């Protein structure tokens, strides 16, 4: 329960607050697509057509999903996009350029990246404003997270100097597990306020929801998993509101 679970459930939670949300599935497994109630085997256009065939983004976006957000789908065709991208000049900013015409139409765009670092991931980093890192509090997790943050920083220096770490999210958390609590404490020591206060617990409903083609809040809104992602959405919104206040104050004082 990591990146895709967080992408789909956070997107649905933001959509529930009446924010306009777009989810971009760049993982050839298409789990975010299926978890949004869209059959990856039936979609006519995916991220492949957007990145490789220059399909108009309006023709690729699926406007109706079970999560209440818009979707750019993925399936096995997207595997070929990684190879085909190497044919293009400025290959690392193909997604950024494709999004340019619709970026201002959405409050949030969530990108579900492939599990490994490749040209699709680079495109996501180049197009994004920030990176949200979900992680399980397990042995070696802190070392792995430190390496990931270093990789993101190196990528950002090349393709997107403005890219930042939005936050670190503890997922599949079991408060009864001593190791999980120890790792959680270490995370807070190393990353400070970058670690979200909201914790996503281990939850059967979160695990079941994808098989029913829906985010947890539309599968069982009373579940602790659904409530946790709603809480995360609220925390992110409050953080961003607080970050914008100094800018507002500065403008008023000029």
TrEMBL record:
Gene3D superfamilies: P-loop containing nucleotide triphosphate hydrolases (3.40.50.300). Residues 2-165 form the AAA domain. Pfam families: AAA_31 (PF13614). To B.subtilis soj. This is Cobyric acid synthase CobQ.
